[in-house]
Design goal:
By secondary structure, this protein is mostly helical. It has one domain. It contains four helices and no strands. It starts with a helix and ends in a 10-residue tail after the last helix. The mean pLDDT is 81. This is Phasin family protein.
């Protein structure tokens, strides 16, 4: 098969879309699972042919693999946790650096930060309260009696 036709086949595969890709992956998984099943049947058939010694050797090999895997599992879990922790710290540092740079850029553009906006809101509220007090004082009837004219 020429490189040209391989490229064309690859392009066709890429155009299949995600659903077809999943279908293909599912088919590949079934094929692989079937191959594992056949390997197991083959091992069983060979064990029958060669006697119980071969079967016992397979069982012992399986035990060793299982033991080795179980011994490594805590170490793998520890490494995974350290990577997760390190990744979290790195993300925190990146987020802080991004926030700092964004804050500086907004400041250069004259856009107030959260603290400045909150201070402005408090000041507006103080002025609103003062105006309301003044309006209340103006609308109250005067307590002094009026001079008759």
């Amino acid at each position: 098969m020429s490189d040209q036709s391989k490229d064309n086949n690859q392009d066709k595969k890429d155009e299949r879309g995600p659903l077809r890709t999943l279908t293909g992956a599912s088919r590949d998984l079934r094929k692989y699972t079937h191959q594992i099943w056949l390997a197991g049947l083959g091992a069983f058939a060979r064990a029958e042919e060669e006697g119980s010694g071969f079967f016992d050797a397979l069982v012992e090999a399986g035990r060793q693999v299982e033991k080795h895997t179980r011994e490594k599992a805590p170490r793998v879990e520890d490494i995974k946790e350290r990577v997760r922790h390190h990744t979290g710290e790195t993300m925190d540092r990146m987020e802080k650096a991004f926030d700092d740079r964004l804050s500086k850029a907004l400041s250069r553009l004259g856009i107030p930060n959260k603290r400045e906006v909150e201070a402005l809101q408090r000041r507006v509220q103080e002025l609103t309260d003062a105006l309301e007090r003044m309006e209340d004082e103006e609308s109250e009837p005067e307590s002094k009696p009026r001079d008759p004219e």
